Amino acid sequence: MGAYILRRLLLMIPTIIGIMAISFIVIQFAPGGPVEQVIAQLQGQGDTSTGRISGGGSDFQGSQSAAGGSGNGEYRGAQGLDPEFIAKLRKQFGFDKPPLQRFAKMMWDYARFDFGQSYFRDISVIDLIGEKLPVSISLGVWILLLSYAISIPLGIKKAVGDGSQFDVWTSGIIIVAYAVPGFLFGILLIVLFAGGSFFDWFPLRGLVSDNFWSLPWYSKILDYFWHLTLPLISLALAAFATSTLLTKNSFIDEIRKQYVVTARAKGLSERRVLYGHVFRNAMLIIIAGFPAAFITSFFSGSLLIETIFSLDGLGRLGFESVVKRDYPVVFATLYIFSLMGLVVGLVSDLTYTWVDPRIDFERRDV
């Protein structure tokens, strides 16, 4: 197993480099980069005679070109700006270096977890992500636990009673839950329970109340979950539906196999057959989907849900960073969660061997 783990860890290096390289290449052709963003802000102020901006601790002075021509034909909207000012702007953002050199430096910095400074916020990228992470962790982890805690027992019960009245009407509920978008259900919950048109039972803004730190510990717990109730319900629908159907189908496939018939013929109780034999094999496919569920729990629908419930998390940060072309934040979040996905994938494989010791990855031909 040690050789397999080492091989997987080594494979993460070219994988993460490939992911970042593809994204970096795409970004090179994307219009409206950070230099153009600053130029647009300057032009939008209506007074570009000084062209004064501040970013990254540096101030730049740029006067309008006397010729009135393009300061740099490479940038849209740069007409009338001093070419020297544009050159300083390019240097500030690091675009004065060749793309390959910029990519190599970025990967070297990221390997040391040095993500630099945000282009348009006076804060380091790692601190910015740290500020937004509690919201995304709160939504992601609780959604994951909630969906698995409900869907696995429900899926098992539906598999055992396949075709029963309980199976039929719960399937109807699951189909409806899967079909309704989470953000649309979130709006419905706001209208009903967050001061919309009916009741005002739940808050509509933030992860905690303004007086959170002055509350006793038990009130802090209640306040925390009071704010999370509606967002969690909104996000749980699709995850809960998918996991339930996956669990049911997996258990049905196992229940119909010959070893289950043999176990029943030996006189084993139904509970012993189900949880002593079927459960271990049926759960393998659930474990296989855990990495995707883990990563998806941080992103699936989080942008819309965070916007609807005024939660300042990573989904909102990522969207705003893409719009503003804040590339350090975009690439840092991509790197972190790509790395997380690869690590969780390895953990998933190791969990396979824990659930079923018959699986030995080292004996596979790769």
UniProtKB/TrEMBL annotation:
One of its GO terms (biological process) is microcin transport. It is a multi-pass membrane protein. Residues 51-73 are annotated as: Disordered. The chain crosses the membrane at residues 9-30, 137-156, 168-194, 224-247, 282-309, 329-355. Residues 133-348 form the ABC transmembrane type-1 domain. SUPFAM superfamilies: MetI-like. It is found in: Cell inner membrane; Cell membrane. Keywords: Cell inner membrane, Cell membrane, Membrane, Transmembrane, Transmembrane helix, Transport. Belongs to the binding-protein-dependent transport system permease family. This is Microcin C ABC transporter permease YejB. It comes from Pararhizobium mangrovi.
